[in-house]
Amino acid sequence: MGKYDFRPGLENGTRVARVSPWSWIAAVAAALLVTSEKARASVIRVVRGRAQGAPQELNTAEGRQAMARTLIAETSGLEKYPDSELEAIGFVGVNRAVDSGRSIVEVMGPDARSNQGVWNNSQAFRSRWNDAPTFPKWPRAERIARRVLSGEIADPIDGRTLFAHISGLPRPVNGSCGPRRYLSKDSRGRDRCAPNWLKNDPVTIGAATFARGDRS
């Protein structure tokens, strides 16, 4: 188990919940009675919630490297994407790791898998991921990955494990998006075909929209 700070206060503008050490111990005890790995993670998250950052067992050099590469691959490290958005994308990785009982390296990257399937196995993503340290904004990605995995930041997406940049989604064909997508608009008002799961309790940070649930 990582070390957790139960003191109330403010972290990055988000009020930290008042969580006692006894509540945390009770949650762990309840989790041990649950057979499903995903359900155990959910029980722990109910008590840990937004008051806590990433579990310290995820904070490894390899994990920070994988997260930083993924942040570059998703955004090319462009300044138009604010730090808050990159932090939220980082927490998608944290939440997938917690839910599936895996490491950051196992869930973030071209071939990485979790309960939500492969992160992104497109050739363009793979190329940016491999070349990430050569991007001018690589130090920024490393800094954000360190902040996320150090536990310094509370989870801004409250356990969500899915996200998409609507502006990068396909456009409708003959006005149709097909059965597994719905017609949406990007930030410039252009028609896009968003996956149905993006409607599940969405929250938008920067240019990214984050959602709960499975890819179905």
Description:
- There is one protein chain.
- Strands 5-9-8 form a three-stranded antiparallel β-sheet, covered by helices on one side. Strands 1-2 form a two-stranded antiparallel sheet.
- 32% of the residues are buried.
- It is an alpha+beta fold and 216 residues long.
- It has seven helices and nine strands.
- Helix 1 packs antiparallel against helix 2 and helix 4 (83-100) packs across helix 7 (138-149).
- It is 38% helix and 14% strand.
- It has helices spanning 21-32, 37-48, 61-75, 83-100, 104-107, 123-131, 138-149; strands at residues 9-11, 14-16, 113-114, 117-118, 162-165, 181-185, 191-195, 203-205, 208-211.
- The radius of gyration is 18 Å and the shape is globular.
- Mean pLDDT is 80; it is low at 1-51.
- The protein has three domains: 9-51, no CATH class; 56-149; 162-211, no CATH class.
Show unreliable segments: 1-51
| Overall form | globular
Q: Round the Cα radius of gyration to an integer and report it.
A: 18 Å
Q: In which order are the strands of the major sheet placed?
A: 5-9-8
Concise synopsis of the structure shown:
The protein is built from seven helices and nine strands, in the order E-E-H-H-H-H-H-E-E-H-H-E-E-E-E-E.
Q: What keywords describe this structure?
A:
alpha+beta; 9 strands; 216 residues; 3 domains; 3-stranded antiparallel β-sheet
Please give the structural blueprint.
Elements: E1 9-11, E2 14-16, H1 21-32, H2 37-48, H3 61-75, H4 83-100, H5 104-107, E3 113-114, E4 117-118, H6 123-131, H7 138-149, E5 162-165, E6 181-185, E7 191-195, E8 203-205, E9 208-211
Antiparallel strand pairs: 1-2, 3-4, 5-9, 6-7, 8-9
Helix pairs in contact: 1-2, 3-4, 3-6, 3-7, 4-7
